[in-house]
Design brief:
This protein has one domain. By secondary structure, the protein is α+β, with helices and mostly antiparallel strands. A hairpin with a 2-residue loop joins strand 2 and strand 3. It has a four-stranded antiparallel beta barrel. Helix content is about 45%, strand content about 15%.
């Protein structure tokens, strides 16, 4: 659908004079500025890296962080999930008794064993993502990201109650800024 919109815009722009085209581009930039005005300063286009790192995890994302309009930059990648609790992962992994006799059985191995178990139980793939959380980089078990399709987001939402139960949590996951894709891109 975006390809159709871009083709129509290009056709319309060809019909216009250079002055009208410049005015249309300025209007598009103003519209983008209005769309991102409600975002925290840490997530606005052009925010410096030091500021982006300070982003506070969010319960909900604004629509423009999911699907940019045609010709808008791509928003930063936001991952939806729970911080990795290494002690809880170790407890889950020990309960599986798969590889606990491996020496050394590290928390990293336990984290991946616990993730594999949780994926099997919830019927949905998880990712271990490195994200920013108020100035620190942390690991989370991510169900999805804002770059996923609506269908993928719906599947992740269906898996959420089972994941909350396994992790023995009552609060919903949060949205975190991805360490590797924290900025708007064209």
């Amino acid at each position: 659908m975006n390809a159709e919109i871009i083709a129509r815009l290009q056709t319309e722009l060809r019909k216009r004079s250079p002055e009208e085209t410049v005015l249309a581009v300025k209007a598009a930039r103003k519209y983008l500025a209005l769309r991102v005005a409600c975002l925290p300063e840490t997530l606005k286009p052009g925010a410096p890296s030091e500021l982006v790192r300070q982003t506070v995890p969010m319960q909900k994302l604004k629509p423009m962080l999911f699907e940019p309009l045609s010709l808008e930059p791509t928003p930063p990648r936001m991952c939806y999930g729970y911080p990795v609790d290494k002690k809880k992962c170790m407890r889950i992994a020990r309960g599986l008794k798969q590889r606990v006799n491996i020496v050394p059985y590290t928390t990293s191995i336990a984290m991946y064993d616990a993730m594999a178990y949780m994926e099997k139980q919830i019927g949905h793939e998880l990712e271990i993502e490195n994200v920013w959380c108020e100035g620190s980089d942390i690991l989370i078990f991510s169900l999805c990201c804002n770059w996923n399709s609506r269908e993928e987001l719906a599947v992740a939402a269906k898996a959420l109650p089972k994941l909350k139960h396994i992790l023995e949590l009552t609060e919903d996951p949060m949205w975190y800024v991805d360490v590797y894709h924290p900025r708007w891109t064209k």
